Amino acid sequence: MVTEKKEHTEKVQELFNRIAPVYDSLNQWLSLGQHHIWKMMAVKWSRPNKGGRALDICCGSGDLAGILSQKVGKTGKVHGLDFSIEQLAVAKEKYPTWIIEWIQGDALELPFSNESFDCVTMGYGLRNLNDIPTALKEILRVLKPGSSASILDFHRPYDPTFSLFQDIYLNSLVVPIAQVYGYKEDYAYISQSLQKFPQGRHQVELGYQSGFSRSVHYPIAQGMMGVLVLTK
Fold it and tell me: What is the pTM of this model?
């Protein structure tokens, strides 16, 4: 089991290192520009405050961390953590290190002390982790009492009509566009990962089981996306 988890982690890490050069442009194309709106929503639900300390886990190319830095202001501090060195390289080019501290690290073993952060965000990361309960418990550990975490990710709609639309969208639009860039197999992975990813109601249960006092899942984009909001 340990070997399987390690192999999964290495496979996903290699994938995100590989797609780093086109990650931003493909996100823009494939979401029709909507991903910026979804990220703004996720940050808002994490309840950042001026002068606060914020953490973006699985930060990728840094968009959520960048929005957080605007919210906490010059007197605050933002940490962006990811296990992909290539994604972090892109993030550092977009946002100077004096604004955000970029850290290569593991979402399942956060390199921070207990109750360190006023808010936490994660975008498109939870689905790719091989131990979701451990990830949620780590978020709980580093959050200050009363603070919130906001987790944005793809979601399998409960409505069969939109579920079918999502399948068509991913297989007939996302994968062909990714193929043009030479990343067909990498983006075909999205559909595979979604099949194993807990739906909203199950995510809410996992939040409570991890020890959060409040756990709510907000479906967006007709349930094809969702934000899990957790409060310590």
Answer: 0.90
How does pLDDT run across 7-37, given as a tens digit for each residue?
666 666 676 667 666 666 666 656 667 888 9
For residue 184, which amino acid is it? K
Return the amino acid letter for 119: C
d(Cα 22, Cα 30) in Å, to the nearest integer? 12
Whether the pLDDT of residue 56 is over 90: the answer is yes
* Cβ-Cβ contacts under 8 Å for 88 (sequence gap 6 or more): 59, 80, 82, 102, 104
Give me the domains of the chain, ranges plus CATH numbers. Answer: 2-156+198-231 (3.40.50.150)
Strand order of the β-sheet with 143-154 is 100-104, 77-82, 53-57, 117-123, 143-154, 225-231, 214-220
Q: Are 189 and 232 in contact (CB under 8 A)?
A: no
The most distant pair of C-alpha atoms in the chain lies apart, rounded to whole Å, by 47
